[in-house]
Amino acid sequence: MPVEYQMANQSEERQSWSSRLAYIMTVAGATVGFGATWRFPYLVGENGGGAYVFLFCIAMIVIGIPMILVENVIGRRMRVNAVDAFGGSANGKKISPAWKILGYMGLLGAFGILAYYMVLGGWVLNYIGSLITGNLDLSTPVTVETTYQFFQQSIFNSPVIIITYTAIFVLVNYFILVKGIVDGIERSVKYLMPILFVFLLVMVIRNVTLPGAVEGIKFYLMPDFSKITPKLFVFVLGQVFFALSLGFGVLITLSSYLDKNENLVKTATITGVMNTIIAVLAGFMIFPSLFSFGVAPNSGPTLVFQSLPIVFSNMWGGTIFAIIFFALLVVAALTTSLTIYEVIITALQEKANISRKKAIFITLATIFILGNIPSALSDNVLKDVQIMGKSIFDAFDYISGNILFILTALGSAIFVGFVLKDEAKEELGAGKTLTNIWFNYVRFVIPVIILVIFFNSL
């Protein structure tokens, strides 16, 4: 479809995605970041392998796709920022301004995740730089002690280097964002997503063909049903929120640029399926190699930074494949960070009625100073600063992922089910039976599920 423009309450014209494919690829990029390539694999390793993968696929159907539709409906309804999307009128009545609190909570959550997320990007860039310069030498087999010492020295004890790499990552985001939704984010994602898929397939093919890889595949795909518990399922449901960027305005913002004629059910289903496929593929590029070289799969968040370098050092062409792997992480992180930034940028641009370029600068600079730098210093200079008993880095993650996102998602489901009501059904635009099933599920079941997730995460 042609690019269309619609005037919003702002000083510049609001763009629309140039095509359905462009929107789907951008949403896929938004939901395929560190959640799929870093967090999902280590959680699989810690929680029973195939049992976790099995529950993740079910959770995508139970909570993922229905909640994508909730945010799509809210976002496209008024085609404005993630705060004002909770305003206007519905069913002939003006919506209380109090509902906009949900939008502001989403902005806070977006700030929180970007505060540490960009630093993770700095970690990955540091590893790529170290591999290229030979500071991290994987040409011969390395030990657990070697990778541990490198991680401590290059990540925790090198704040200036990490802040520098984080700043580089932020600048890359800036130069893409200033070009706008279509010429910036959309065009970049069109190139970045194919690159990500190619890198992913290269790593999967390399790892599943390693000697002894079958044991890793069995661990990954064959669920041990004795490890499946209600508590684990609730935990997996919570991971779906992180994996799909639910609750902090990303899908609301992206769908606000979506044409009214687009099929929301189709795009939501494709988004959920693509996220699941890429997350599962990410496991294929990790677990076969771990088992091939006898490395434990349950090393937690440091899996890709401390355990995988051991694997690469034992692999033919290990340094090259390590660079490809970490480049893949950077690409995945970039496609996500761009869209999270956009949540705050769009809100600031429209609420403060300022130019896009100024909104971008204020957003990125503020998060860098108040979020990225403190997160990068949380394990060294600011290691004695604790928030809720956690380091600054971990506190940003916990407060955003376990409190703000979940409560915003809960409020969004209630908003659709009890405020928008018939207007939500009309916006969905699906068949009557499917629409009613989704609406009643969102109205009565989803809030209960989210409350269980919330109390389990505290």
Automatic annotation (TrEMBL):
Superkingdom of origin: Bacteria
Membrane topology per record: Multi-pass membrane protein
PROSITE patterns cross-referenced by the UniProt entry: NA_NEUROTRAN_SYMP_1, NA_NEUROTRAN_SYMP_3
GO molecular function: symporter activity
Transmembrane segments: 21-40, 52-70, 101-125, 155-177, 189-212, 232-258, 270-295, 315-348, 360-378, 398-420, 441-457
Keywords from the named record: Membrane, Symport, Transmembrane, Transmembrane helix, Transport
Family: Belongs to the sodium:neurotransmitter symporter (SNF) (TC 2.A.22) family.
Protein's name in the database: Transporter
Organism: Mannheimia varigena USDA-ARS-USMARC-1296
